[in-house]
Amino acid sequence: MRREMHLMRQVLFFDTTLRDGEQAPGYSLTVDQKVELALQLERLGVNTIEAGFPISSPVDFAATREICKALKTAKTCGFARTLRADIDACAEAMADAANPMVQVASVGSDIHMRHKRSVTPEQVEKETLDALDHARTVGFTDISLAFEDATRGDMAFMTRLIEQGLERGITAIAIPDTVGCCLPEQFRDLIAELRAVVGDDIRISIHLHDDLGLAVANAVAGIQGGADEVQTTLCGIGERAGNTAIEELVAILNSKQAELHCVHDIVTHRLVDACSTLAGMIGLEVPRHKAILGTNAFSTEAGMHQQGILRHRFTYEWLRAEDYGATPRVAMGRHSGRTIVRHRLASSGVAELDERAVDAVYEAISHAVTPEQYESTDVLVAAYRQALDDLATAPAPEPTEVPE
Length: 404
Known about the structure:
2 domains
């Protein structure tokens, strides 16, 4: 049965900050940090939190165990390869989880089978089905079958394996663009094709990488193709160029709801705080121009823009900074012009502005090493009063002789 795409539907958020995000170079977290972030993600409204890859290290095992104890509402997921030992480690680490989920990673592409694993499709099929059977044997009832490198995969092979997985009770399939090579239209068509295979009752989760800067665009395309869930990270961290940035995708779903017909559970005004917590833990320097999070994301210095904003905020502030936990800023600098100087002075109670003094203040701002200091009301007003004093005490100009 084809889904009625014009009806409002929920997009689930599966956060992999603590697994794919954290495994990137330089982003390692302690057990306590991972638990703190998991609780913050739960407050943020994330539906599923991938706690880690328990068999990969003692830290991941301990963190998964402690996260399972700490979470109250979000579902906890453990990551496993198609190995019984991996699944056993997940089961042991997640023994205290109220509703444990396991994501079993199989292989989707021939290039990974041949050059990474040195296995045949038949071997992949056998080990995957054995892993799914074992997952149910050890007590998992929520099982996601993931296909690494799915966007370069063989559709016939993946379809056959999915159908056999459905017979074994899988509740979801996860489709990664592992190397970030897909274009949005291609990814949308892939998800639509898979949706036709699995029907409406199986969750399709999508996992995108940002190697071409298309992770968020591909996430939107996947939703349009029929995906139920997107695997995201705070600040978009992850392998190589990173994953789908939760803050950017949420902003799109919020602002394009009429076109995408989607709702979600994310508490949007907590996004910046959650991302800032992560950035502080891993020493991440967020680029100034980064959407939603960057210091310039809701700031402007250009005089023409400021003039529009001062008259009607949404001439340029199409997104409300406060909706995401950020603060809008009209910056003082050499590009800002005199309008903002007049506005700030008038707002500070300075009446009947002297344009010569305004010019002097603007010149000072334009040549200042740190023009942001003038954003302080006290500094700006003091500079204006000093300009008035300088004008009052300046010697009168010498009269110009006019030749007879």
